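Run log // design_07
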């Protein structure tokens, strides 16, 4: 079971309810990340979606979504970096970061 949640409170509730994966997680706190790690919940930060939203020629070519993407992207990146730092080796396998970084690099070329 997967939950799409940007906000911390909703994501934490979903994790406590037993989801297997949090998509986005933009505003996750350290406490929620720790709980996810403890329960082995996947984190899919979907940074590429935020990058794409911010891009005027992206898949979501919409000025409102561009503002939203630009506002959320730095927080999403910061959260992902925090999650990566606190992740154990086994939990890192649950964060598809390599793929995200590859796609980001490809997009910025
Ligand atoms: Zn979503």
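design_07 sequence
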């Amino acid at each position: 079971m997967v939950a799409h949640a940007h906000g911390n409170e909703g994501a934490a509730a979903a994790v406590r309810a037993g989801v297997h994966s949090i998509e986005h997680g933009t505003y996750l706190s350290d406490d929620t990340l720790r709980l996810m790690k403890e329960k082995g919940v996947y984190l899919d930060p979907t940074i590429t979606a935020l990058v794409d939203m911010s891009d005027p020629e992206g898949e979501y070519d919409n000025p409102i979504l561009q503002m939203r993407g630009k506002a959320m992207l730095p927080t999403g990146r910061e959260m992902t970096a925090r999650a990566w730092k606190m992740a154990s080796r086994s939990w890192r396998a649950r964060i598809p970061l390599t793929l995200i970084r590859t796609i980001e690099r490809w997009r910025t070329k």
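The mean pLDDT is 85.
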